[in-house]
Amino acid sequence: MMVDWLFKNVTVIDGSGGPQYRGDVAVAGDRIVDIAPSLNVDAAQIINGAGQVLAPGFIDVHTHDDINVIRMPEYLPKMSQGITTVIVGNCGISAAAATMKGAVPDPMNLLGEAQHFIYPTVEAYAQAVEAARPALNVGTLIGHTALRNNHMDNLFRPATVSEITAMRNDLREALKQGALGMSSGLAYATAFESTTEEVMALAEELSEAQGVYTTHLRSEFEPILEALDEAFRIGRHAQVPVVVSHHKCAGAKNWGRTKETLAFFDKMRAQQEIGCDCYPYSASSSTLDLKQVTDEFDIVITWSEPHPDQAGKKLQQIADDWQMSMLEAAKLLMPAGAIYYNMDEQDVRRVLSYPVTMIGSDGLPNDPMPHPRLWGAFPRVLGHYCRDERLFPLTMAIHKMTGLSAARFQLPERGLIKTGYYADLVLLDPQTVRDVASFSDPQQPADGINAVMVNGVMSYGRDKHIIGRAGRFLRRQSQSGKE
Ligand code: ZN
Ligand code: CU
Q1: Thinking of the domain 57-289+339-414, which architecture would CATH place it in?
Q2: Residue 335, preceding peptide bond in cis (omega within 30° of 0)
Q3: Where does 290-338 sit in CATH, by number?
Q4: What does the pLDDT look like over 253-295, one tens digit per residue?
Q5: How far is the CA of 50 from the centre of ligand 2 (A)?
Q6: 33 alpha carbon – ligand 2 mean position (Å)
Q7: How far is the CA of 262 from the centre of ligand 1 (A)?
Q8: Which ligand is nearest to the CA of 184?
């Protein structure tokens, strides 16, 4: 037997959460073809992996990379973390199945400018991904806010019956073409006025396809339990899995309350399928939101359309300079982006450790001064939280980035090191892996991610400057079997 690649003497962490073991792993074409304590096969290329961990390529379940994976197909912010698949279309905003008539509404402006929204269907988006040949695989959710924007002249009200029908038609078609599910961003003003019934009606379209419902909750502040209850009700109504996006308790008055939210998860998980994703930082980032302006914690402006020179400064500092209130300053800065230091470290740890929590970066790739999660989320979990802080074992950390995520988003034959599975793999040094990206210097590749393979093609090496381009568009597997 002749294979393309042989990883010798690696420590295999297979993504299932089960124990690690020493062995050899062979790859031929785009698949893992053999795994054994010692393989005697001819290989075109042999990698001696002694002392290193071989894991399934990481799946970033929460991204806003929709347009950037096409425009910058090498996609170093993610490849350099060992990520081999990104799920786009989160927080109610997707480029797929979106049409833009006028100005790009907040927060769709996180994805790109009006001229970048050129994918009216999932099929059009899939073709663009395939044509761009990005380095990593891409699967998409359909954003509720994107659907609203397709059919509503005014987003600051509930949708009418006929608008809901039109949105359902779009979503049904998108699911047929392989979308993984629907996301919502109910906290944002552009979706906040939608009723629970509006979202439930759309979620009905997910039932048959068993697509997932992911949600940026209506509130991550004091009313978070009510917001969770709404999300879970929508999931029960449609009988589909719910993924709570970037679960956190935001705002000083809310600190410590993940004890309550996770107890509620526990209770409801007995009745329905629920998961969540989380990024490993106690600061959040999004567009600047007047409702979140407060003096309880620092807010740093990352970009501002009218005042680009203010990027990198604290909102408090800008308000002092301009001799006005923070709220007045915020109004003048908008549209803008911000980092909010609005979480409690203990809450972050509790959520990260929770058994059904997946890792999702929520990175914002168009931000000139991005939150470091864009380049650092996955290695920060592996280095800082797992190795240095001993929050959980490495097998568990990797499970939260691979096997758990592939199962939740129905990505067949990915997320595990298993014979017959796709050869999406990452070779990393467990002693040195760490996030280098920081708040002051956020665009830095991680240390310790030594090789990344996507669909059997060696695609990234920390010091070797390999740039492979073997990513694919991943469609939801139909319930009846293979497509
Ligand atoms: Zn969000
Ligand atoms: Cu998000």
Answers
A1: Alpha-Beta Barrel (3.20)
A2: yes
A3: 3.30.1490.130
A4: 999 999 999 999 999 999 999 999 999 999 999 999 999 999 9
A5: 37
A6: 36
A7: 19
A8: 1
